[in-house]
Amino acid sequence: MEQFWENDFVTTAGYYSVVILCTIVFLAVFELVTKYRNWEEIKKGNLSVAMATGGKIFGVANIFRHSIAQHDSLLSMVSWGVFGFILLLIGYFIFEFMTPKFNIDKEIQQDNRAVGLISLIISVGLSYVIGAGI
User: Fold this and answer.
1) What does each C-alpha distance from 80 to 61, 62, 63, 65, 125 come to in angstroms?
2) Which of 49, 54, 81, 89 would be 67's cystine partner, CB 3.0–4.6 Å?
3) How far apart are CA 105 and CA 108, in angstroms?
4) Does the pLDDT value for residue 5 go beyond 90?
5) For the residues 12-23, what does the mean pLDDT come to?
6) Angle CA(33)–CA(127)–CA(8) in degrees, nearest 5?
7) pLDDT tens digits, 31-74
8) pTM to 2 decimal places
9) Number of domains in the chain
10) Contact, 105 vs 36, CB < 8 A?
11) 118 band by pLDDT with thresholds 50, 70 and 90
12) How far is CA 124 from the centre of its chain?
């Protein structure tokens, strides 16, 4: 049975499954901290929300990519991935704090594409920095 768990296909499928589950949970957390409903806004064609959400998905995936590459056990990989997600979430709050002249969530909900694009780039950029630290 041990040979089964050491098979590269099984290991990859295991990491994949866990990362998909974590991504769904993390997107639910982002949904709770934003003032808009991601999937409702995307359904309406709000490109800014789609960009911001896509940046979050890419950011989470990139953090887990680094976590998988650096850690041997599933528990260690998930732990570092969760830590990376928390740092990404903190980055979101810092972005909101650093723009006191306007509300990020409100601008994204109103389809301000410039803010949506910056949000995407911040998520992606921070995920590389977080990943390097993992």
Assistant:
1) 12, 12, 9, 11, 18
2) 81
3) 5
4) no
5) 94
6) 110
7) 999 989 999 999 999 999 999 999 999 999 999 999 999 988 88
8) 0.89
9) 1
10) yes
11) very high
12) 8
Structural domain boundaries, residue 72: 2-133
Calpha distance 2→59 (Å, rounded) = 33
- 23/58 Cα distance (integer angstroms): 10
Rounded Cα–Cα distance for residues 16 and 5 (Å): 14
Contact 51, 116 (CB under 8 A): yes
| Structure tokens belonging to residue 70 | 């650096």
Would you list the DSSP string of the chain? -HHHHT-HHHHHHHHHHHHHHHHHHHHHHHHHHSSS-HHHHHHTT-HHHHHHHHHHHHHHHHHHHHHHHH-SSHHHHHHHHHHHHHHHHHHHHHHHHT-TTS-HHHHHHTT-HHHHHHHHHHHHHHHHHHHHH-
Residue whose token pair is 């980055």: 91
> How far apart are the C-alpha atoms of 38 and 81, rounded to whole Å?
22
